[in-house]
Write a structure and sequence with these properties.
The complex is a heterodimer of chains A (111) and B (114). Chain A is mainly β and 111 residues long. Chain A contains no helices and eleven strands. Helix content of chain B is 0%, strand content 53%. In chain B, the strands form two sheets. In chain B, strands 2, 4, 5, 6, 9, 10 and 11 form a seven-stranded mixed beta sheet that branches. A four-stranded antiparallel beta sheet of chain B has the order 1-3-8-7, with no helix packed on it. Chain B is globular. Classes of the chains: A mainly beta (111), B mainly beta (114).
Chain lengths: 111, 114
Amino acid sequence: ELKVEQNPLFLSMQEGKNYTIYCNYSTTSDRLYWYRQDPGKSLESLFVLLSNGAVKQEGRLMASLDTKARLSTLHITAAVHDLSATYFCAVDTPNDYKLSFGAGTTVTVRA
Amino acid sequence: GAVVSQHPSWVICKSGTSVKIECRSLDFQATTMFWYRQFPKQSLMLMATSNEGSKATYEQGVEKDKFLINHASLTLSTLTVTSAHPEDSSFYICSARVGPRPPSFGAGTRLSVL
């Protein structure tokens, strides 16, 4: 069974500072996704990482994937209030295209 | 592209009644659709996987007779919560994908059973 561990589960950020969310997974997979969820809403796709060493950036968010270490990171640069949300990583189970989700990281950005 | 429409977005029903939720892929034909359930402040829990024209595959612990899934075409899957009870109240999310391509998610359905 593919297990996905995300940490921290809660992250209180100060505006303007940098933070990282970590996503570890237990078995081989080369497809990892990051999503954002606002309260009462569904998932918004942030990044799709499809190969070892993949790095993608969008605004203040940057995601990377190390398939050998089975680790992905979501880095937040100079946090702003608009980034308050819950962030999920998810990993494709090999061969059946099911997604296994991490527990989510609830981010609160304070002034 | 890759838009998934989910309806209704919110439904309230009386205990003992059945509720149907629709999930449509609008601009692509989905080989596989997935149904998730999410409790407040928790992650998404996969309930079942459905492929067009075949029976859904349910995850362990999910009652097949309670959560009926029909996948009649490559663009439509439905989830029917039968004889709903308050403990079935939750946020239900569908997703659809074509093979290994990244999945697209519906907007979710909030079910409240009184």
